[in-house]
Design goal:
The protein is α/β, with parallel strands linked by helices and 612 residues long. The chain folds into 3 domains: 254 residues, ANL, N-terminal domain (Rossmann fold), CATH 3.40.50.12780; 149 residues, no CATH class; 130 residues, GMP Synthetase, Chain A, domain 3 (2-Layer Sandwich), CATH 3.30.300. It is built from 21 helices and 27 strands. The strands form 6 sheets. It has an 8-stranded mixed sheet with strand order 4-3-13-12-14-15-16-17, sandwiched between helices. Strands 9-8-7-5-6-10-11-20 form an 8-stranded mixed sheet, with helices on both faces. It has a 4-stranded antiparallel sheet with strand order 18-19-21-22. Helix 2 crosses helix 3 and helix 12 packs across helix 14. The radius of gyration is 25 Å and the shape is globular.
């Protein structure tokens, strides 16, 4: 292994800025195990009173067992295996075990419907499928007759009386007859250019496309991420995002490289409690998570009212004052430090404690984060580093640094990653993090790259003199009004969603005289508000159509319209049912499917423009 010195980029102070050319993911894993064999590698929260852990040495031994069992089932070099499961230890174990013997992992969202699962399993040519439990197995059984390539299905949890199905224990026992020598031969045969994973895009438009990622893509990207901050061996990350999403997967590989302990949350429903149990030093989340926490904190402060609310507002003002000084990279004056210490004791310590009490920083990705949300958490002593990446570039190109950050920007490019703005404003990238191709989609692959080999992001943006990138919108989402104004809806949607009463926002206005929005309500906060107002209702469906609720949402939107130019303001609003995966209006990563939303609510939209 020879160091590969970086050509460009900047990282955390004091970090060795050389890359190691690992032969494959297994070699990266073994290197970490050799350094920290008895350090805790993974921890699963089973109940509030019970967790299960493995060391790096134990993890490597388990990886080898998985690899042998795959060999025993006839899974060859380059064969695909699919995983349909929520984030858990066995997901990571199976993933690394498969890659160790040259197999290719295909992650599938556990929230996908049976037909969506069938499409990816079949299109990827998977010969084996791992599923979380009997609920996920039912999806495979439903479409079994149309999965002729699948030899076996392996359950992470539970058992099923069917020769097509193996329990995980039965699966692991299959490899006992495979020799160490035979396995080592398979491991040595895996090179950096070999495929490690096929990650399917979430499919906001059209069918999902499988981005082909190599071992070099993965091991190189993990190092680029590492160079952007400092992660110490034994520090803890709490993981709750789906591993079918490359964002979460890249963080597990970075944790593997840096010997960071990964703690798996039980579910999204238990995340609040799991934060206190895991006490992470860092974590990743999508903007919706931060928005929900922000809304809950504000609602809690307002519910207390009186003196408590005045103290809360005073603390936030002090936090913002300190935040501006830090952003300017100036020393915080003594008087402000003392006031901030008091604000922390009275208010911010509670928010910090809710996240475990020792978070150094956290990362937001997968969608734009409203700068106001970032500034609020910064005021509270919690630094959110916004970044950006795509499935096609191993989910990483840019991120803010702990010592060099801005709100509303996604930061400088990672070390070794090149970025540019095309003539039409599109952001484009080049580097060893970029995928090889879309699986079995040659035309789509050609369209993804420029003639000179740069990856098209589909995003619009700008790069300043310091290399910071700001995303201003999506090329496909760009709204051009009938008056000729170009508007990026995502920024507007992010601002409107800061209302504690609003859950989701879809802005409409292409070839129209003005913007309108379809919004869904925050059930908990709107219900509490209605009870305070003495509004009687028998169901939430009845409540969301109440004239006073409509007036409340219109007032919330009007207040936030003040942040925009006149042509960017939302003139009318309609309250609709929640956009969900089940009704096929959002992707598994919760991105809006704008076309289907507009089609589903065509009559509602037309009514908003009546008489325009």
């Amino acid at each position: 292994m020879l160091p590969n010195l970086l050509a460009s980029g900047s990282g955390a102070e004091g970090v060795d800025m050389a890359f190691v050319d690992f032969a494959n993911v297994y070699e990266m894993t073994r290197t970490t195990v050799e350094k920290y064999p008895e350090l805790e590698a993974y921890r699963t929260i089973v109940t509030p009173d019970h967790s299960e852990s493995v060391t790096w040495r134990q993890f490597l031994a388990a990886v080898r067992r998985v690899g042998k069992s795959l060999m025993a089932l006839g899974v060859g070099h380059g064969d695909k295996i699919s995983i349909v499961s929520y984030t858990c230890y066995k997901w990571v174990l199976t993933d690394v075990g498969a890659e160790s013997v040259g197999a290719v992992t295909v992650g599938i969202y556990h929230s996908n419907l049976a037909e969506d699962v069938r499409y990816i399993v079949d299109h990827s040519d998977s010969v084996l499928v791992f599923v979380q439990d009997l609920e996920q197995l039912a999806k495979l059984l439903e479409v079994r007759s149309r999965l002729p390539k699948v030899r076996k299905v392996v359950l992470f949890q539970g058992e099923h009386e069917d020769e097509w199905v193996l329990s995980y224990e039965q699966f692991l026992a299959l490899g006992d007859g495979i020799s160490e020598a035979a396995q080592e031969e398979r491991i040595r045969a895996v090179g950096p250019a070999d495929v490690a994973a096929i990650v399917y895009t979430s499919g906001t438009t059209g069918v999902p496309k499988g981005a082909v990622l190599t071992h070099d893509n993965i091991t190189w990207t993990a190092q680029s991420v590492q160079h952007c901050t400092v992660m110490h061996p034994g520090e803890v990350q709490l993981l709750f995002l789906p591993l079918a999403h490359i964002f979460a997967r890249t963080c597990t590989f970075t944790a593997l490289l840096t010997a960071t302990t990964t703690v798996f949350a039980r579910s999204l429903d238990t995340v609040a409690e799991d934060f206190k149990l895991a006490r992470p030093h860092w974590f990743i989340a999508v903007p919706r998570i931060y928005e929900k926490v922000h809304a809950k904190v504000l609602a809690g402060a307002e519910a207390k009212g009186g003196l408590a609310l005045k103290i809360f507002r005073w603390a936030v003002a002090v936090g913002h004052e300190r935040g501006e000084v830090l952003l300017a990279k100036k020393p915080v004056p003594l008087g402000l430090r003392l006031r901030y210490a008091l604000a922390t004791k009275l208010v911010f310590s509670k928010i910090q404690a809710a996240l475990g009490g020792r978070v150094k920083w956290c990362i937001s990705g997968a969608a734009p984060l409203d700068p106001a949300i970032g500034r609020f958490f910064h005021a509270a002593g919690i630094l959110i580093l916004e970044g950006i990446g795509m499935t096609e570039n191993t989910s990483f190109t840019n991120v803010n640094r702990p010592d060099n950050y801005r709100f509303g920007w996604v930061g400088p490019a990672g070390p070794g990653i090149e970025q540019r703005i095309a003539a039409d404003g599109e952001i484009q990238f080049r580097g060893r993090n970029v995928m090889r191709e879309y699986y079995k989609m040659s035309e789509e692959t050609r369209e993804a790259f420029t003639a000179d080999g740069w990856l098209r992001s589909g995003d619009l943006g700008e790069i300043d003199a310091e290399g910071f990138l700001r995303v201003t919108g999506r090329k496909k989402d760009l709204i051009i009004t009938s008056g000729g104004k170009n508007i990026a809806p995502t920024a507007i949607e992010g601002v409107l969603a800061t209302s504690k009463y609003i859950n989701q926002v879809c802005v409409i206005g292409d070839r129209r005289p003005y913007l309108v929005a379809l919004v869904t309500l925050d059930t908990e906060n709107v219900t509490a508000w209605a009870k305070e107002q003495g509004i009687s209702f028998e169901s939430f469906a009845e409540l969301q159509q109440h004239p006073r609720v409509q007036a409340l949402i219109e007032a919330e939107v009007a207040e936030r319209n003040a942040k925009f130019a006149s042509f960017e303001t939302v003139k009318k609003v309609a309250i609709v049912d929640e956009f969900t995966i089940a009704n096929e209006l959002v992707t598994p990563t919760l991105k809006l499917k704008r076309g289907p939303i507009a089609e589903r609510y065509a009559q509602v939209i037309e009514a908003l423009y009546a008489g325009a």
